[in-house]
Structures are given as C-alpha cells and as structure tokens.
Design a protein that fits this description.
The chain is of the alpha/beta class. The protein has two domains: 13-259, Aldolase class I (TIM Barrel, Alpha-Beta Barrel), CATH 3.20.20.70; 269-339, Four Helix Bundle (Hemerythrin (Met), subunit A). It is 45% helix and 13% strand. The protein contains 18 helices and eight strands. The protein has helices at 13-18, 32-41, 54-59, 62-65, 84-96, 111-115, 126-137, 157-169, 190-193, 201-210, 225-233, 243-247, 249-253, 256-259, 269-285, 290-294, 307-317, 325-339; strands at residues 21-23, 46-53, 75-80, 101-106, 144-149, 175-179, 215-219, 238-241.
C-alpha cells in the first residue's frame, strides 16, 4: 500500500489542533445560531457550517449564506460541488470572508447531491476530487480538507479508501475526516445511511497506520467523550461528532476543553443559557425570531431534572410574536427550581 505524499502546504496548526474534536456539518442544524451556542460551550472545538454548494456561494446571496460571527473561530466552511473552477471561486470568497478552513463534501448521500455530481458519489471519482482540491489549494493558503465515506454501494472499502486517500493527498490535502460507513446511494435514504451501513472503525485505524503523514479524523456513531478520548488514544488525530453534539451538547461540549484540549474546567449549562441572552436579544431586536435560536438549545439539559419542561416551554412559546429572552428565562426556571 502506497503511503501519502508529503503535504504540499503546511496545515494551519491552530485549526489542526482544534480538529481533535469537531462538530460535524449538518444540514438545517449547524447554522450560525447553533455555532454561536456551541462556541460558548467550547473555546477550542472546530465548528463547521452546513454544506453550501459552490454555485450558491458564487452566484447566490453570499453575504447571507456565509454569514458568521467573529466569535465562532475556528470555523470551517463546507462546500459541495465537483467543478474545479467553481470550487476555486467559492474558496477565494471563503478566504476573503475570513473562514479558517474550506472542506469538500465527499460523503453526503442524498439524491439531490447525487444528481449534482457531488457528495458521496465522488468516492467513485477520486481523480476528479483531486482536480477539485488542487484548484482550491491553488487560490488560497487556507487548509483545504475533505470529508469522505469509506466507500459507496458495492465498492470494497479496503481497496477504495486507500486509493482515494493516495490520489487526493498527492495534490496537497493532508487532513481528511472519514465517516466510517459506506454510503448506499441506491435503496437507502440519507437518514438510513447514518445508521444502517455498519461502522468500520478498524479500517480507519488501518488508514492512519498506512498514512502516518495524514491528519485523519473519524466520524460516525460516536456518542460521548469517553469514546472520543479512546479513539484519540488509539492514534487517530481527531474525532468528529454529529447528532450527539447537537441533541446533547452539554455532554459533549461543556467538558471538551478540559478533557480533550487540556485547557479550562467543565462548563455549566445554566451559565450558557445566560450567556446566550444578549445574542438572543440582539437577534430579536434585528427582526429575527426567538425560535431560530432557541431550537438549537432544546437539548442543553438532556437527562437533568426539568429538561422536559424546558423543552416544552421553548417549543410552545418561542414561535410566538414578541417572544424573546423572557421566554428563555421562564423556561430556565423549570430547571433552576428543581436544581435548588
């Protein structure tokens, strides 16, 4: 098995370090409000945007699509696409807007993504992926990274994944996040693709042994910091967590800085709610709706007394006209009164 070529460009060390723990890009979830919340909970974890197509960045409402808060750093933009020139243009725009990294999506299995010839279907075209990332690398000094699957459909991951890593790393990509499941492009929905194909962590570990020069993160099925630490201790460079970080962010992110980055002490979910209040007030004052922010906060007290009442109060009242910080404080009372 061939080893990866030496990286052509040096990785931004702070971003590579942040990638020890990252929150996965998730459509309809990891918007700027979600990322603001997550950044309050961890100063160090790497945050990703939802996937945005390169064409939308170039031709669409770029300011709206790529808006983020300066407090979100380190933050990465995930792009979807398969046209090298278009991806290069989108990468230049991302660099001008101050993102810390640009990531190419080679893992999403949705029908819409397949029809656009990007996402997981690109696992069948490693040379095209290499052309895409080479074009992106040529226009910026930002780290260009790839998120991929171990293979798709009837491909043999033990053959496909090392070939993919070899071809794509040869043009200068030195950081990959591997979702340790195949994607079945025919017969399974995107939701089913997150659960049904079996996980193969051993293959990802084998890739790290075969490609020691690459920074490899693992994604898929990771639910807590104990698993995260075990995977890092076993030699992987990073762990990316998706749904668990969204649905139970306190369990993942409040202790992350102390446990994964050896910096700081565990945080407190009640303090995080209070820290969110100025952000919520500004958002509502600017014409936004409370629910656009509070929907990302529903899981803050998962497993704690009052959590169900917290969720119910926010769900029932956040959508109402005029809803603001008072609704959040009323919901918080259900938690604090039981914690007293």
């Amino acid at each position: 098995m061939r080893h990866a070529a030496e990286p052509m460009k040096q990785e931004n060390c702070s971003v590579a370090t942040a990638a020890r723990l990252s929150v996965a890009p998730m459509m309809d979830w990891t918007d700027r409000h979600c990322r603001h919340l997550h950044r309050l909970m961890s100063r160090h974890a790497l945050l990703y945007t939802e996937m945005v197509t390169a064409a939308a960045v170039v031709h669409g409402d770029t300011a709206r699509l790529l808006a983020y808060g300066q407090d979100e750093h380190p933050v990465a933009l995930q792009l979807g696409g398969s046209d090298p020139a278009m991806l290069a243009q989108a990468t230049k725009i991302a660099a001008e807007m101050g993102y810390d990294e640009v990531n190419l999506n080679c893992g999403c299995p949705s029908d819409r993504v397949q029809s656009g010839r990007f996402g997981a279907v690109l696992m069948t075209e490693p040379d095209l992926v290499a052309d895409c990332v080479a074009a992106m690398i040529a226009v910026t000094d930002l780290p260009i990274t790839v998120k991929c699957r171990i293979g798709v459909d009837d491909q043999d991951p033990a053959t496909v994944l090392p070939d993919f890593l070899t071809r794509v790393s040869a043009v200068g990509v030195n950081r990959f996040t591997v979702h340790a499941r195949k994607a079945w492009l025919q017969g399974l929905s995107p939701k089913e693709n997150r659960d049904i194909p079996p996980l193969d962590y051993d293959l990802v570990h084998a890739m790290k042994a075969a490609f020691p020069a690459l920074h490899l993160s693992i994604n898929g099925g990771i639910e807590n910091l104990n698993q995260t630490q075990a995977l890092l201790d076993a030699g992987l460079d990073g762990v990316m967590i998706g749904r668990a970080a969204y649905h139970d962010p306190s369990a993942i992110l409040l202790d992350a800085d102390a446990r994964i980055f050896n910096d700081g002490t565990p945080g407190d979910a009640i303090a995080i709610v209070h820290a969110m209040l100025p952000y919520i007030a500004d958002h509502v004052a600017a014409g936004g709706r409370l629910g656009q922010v509070s929907r990302h906060m529903l899981g803050l007290f998962q497993g704690r007394p009052g959590a169900r009442l917290w969720r119910r109060h926010l769900s029932e009242h956040a959508h109402k006209d005029g809803a603001g910080v008072d609704v959040v404080l009323d919901a918080l009372n259900y938690v604090t009164s039981l914690a007293a």
